[in-house]
Amino acid sequence: MALIPNIIFHVLIFLSVYVQVFFLVTFLENRKKIVTRSGKIKLGNYPEVTIAVPCWNEEKTLESTVHSLLNLNYPKDKVKIFLIDDGSTDNTWNIINKFGSFPNIKIFQKENGGKYTALNLALQNTTTDFFGGFDADSIVHPEALARIMGTFEKDPAAMAVAPSVNVYDAKNFIQNAQKAEYNMGVYFKKMLAFLGAINVTPGPMTIFRKKVFDDLGPYRHGHNTEDMEIAYRMQKNRYKIEHCSDAYVYTHSPSSVRKLYKQRLRWIYGFINNTIDYHSVLFRKKYGDFAVFTLPMGIISIVSVSYLFAGIVYNLGHFIYSKILVLSTVGWNFTWKMPQFDLFFIHPRSFVLLIIFLYCLIIFAIMFGRKMTREKKIFSLNMFYFFPVFGIIAPFWLLKAVYNTIRKRKPAWR
Amino acid sequence: MIDWKKYLIVFLITAGLFVTAIYLNNYFGDKKIDQLKLIQDKISIDILSSETQFSLLSELSCKNVSGSLLSGELDELGHKLDWGQNNLGATDEVSYLKKYYSLLQIKDYLLMKKISASCGVKSAFILYFYTTAENCNLCEKESLVLTSLREKYPELRVYSFDYSIDLSAVKALLTIYKIKDTELPALVLDDELLTGFHSVEELDAKILRKP
User: Which residues of chain A does B2 touch, with a Cβ-Cβ cutoff of 8 Å?
Assistant: First the structure.
């Protein structure tokens, strides 16, 4: 390996190990604070909450979404559900209409303007002190809202509380890979919450104090990731974002590589561009670990994955070249022989050991995330789908997001 | 607000992990060098044995002469040295071993030629000269051709020499066969010098033409 690429490679490995060790140390410091409740909880008081569901062509999932909201174990008169049709072209409005007669449901119809415009319409009509969005492709656990409001009750400084998002009914290889990733995400989000450094307030069921919007203004387009932009804005204004790890939300995950690619392209594009928009925050200590850890961590991930991918492509190219050279030189005269196994040729290079260590920490994160989300088994072979799916496809959406940013091309929502 | 002490502790842990990984890498690298040193000892014994056998040959009947004295082991040692050079770096130990290896090949070549002549054992010899000092694409291709030929003719013995190796015995071969670095790769097939790239078919024809 040439010297400079080799140094860059080792620096990136060092930074990647640093990030994972940082999470591990945070976990060891705070592990006793992680509570995973199974039963109902009682609150001192039950503040009124508005939950807005923006809908754009959601005829397939909307009904079950609304039913799950109606089944929340929270006083019915304290939950106001807003269903907003954001210019759907399918049967969504008819489904919304079915719920129009429910006393705690209010329905709206508007021209298509994007999710953030639907959320802002809801905000304009909100009279409660707490407000949250909810994605029309998600299902909420009956206890989630009470647990989230319990977090507000316990911590008056909390300005928003994010839930734990899981994959709903993972069926195929791609969805199981995402399930492992979401499990891991629950663990990481909790660690980021301990650091006060959350950078995304997930679309489904993050509840905000209405004061956040009164003070900081409504949702913005945020490069199609309004739930990230509002989190960045809150962090910039030092508004505390908490995480209630046992407030579960289940989301329908993309079922094909193509759909997953489009979704992640949007997310990563959002990350890159929101980070550019808020670059003045980076490494400024007054913005805490968000500025010194979370954002640099995201940048390191993008650079590392892209660099490693370029290395893999280079090596693959080299391998193919060597095979072509064999074919062009000796034709089909060569014989395929099984190489004899000899321990001599097994050599644990330092970077291989460090990558194995990284993988172990990622497996730990997935397993602990499963524990936090009360999966029946902490260990599942399905979680190993994560590595091939994200290892192979993630570099493509990362690189495309970087390319789109350079070319100023905005990815579509779906 | 920011716990800088934690950042420092994590840095130290990460650095510790890095140092441990590098230590393990070097530890196992040293083990490989030790294994290569064992090979070096084996080569020394083999050279001595080869020489002894060489001098005894005139007194031995052809029945007692082993047809494949060192070739299998030579191949294996060659592979391991190549691997060592690529993965452990061109250390002094590795280049030292490479010299020994070249010497052993010459010894084996001389001995096998003698056996072949005295006992009428059918065999073909190729001396192959390549270079690692510069990028030699043709050498890379020629190596593939020779590997393929060796698989096709088990009795074919190919001895490979790095042109740039600093060993007087190899230099002597270069002088004998008048090999220049501008004509690499070069092959000596039964005392006939062939320079540049030669395909499987060409060498095949030459080997088959042999009496």
Answer: 285, 288-289, 292
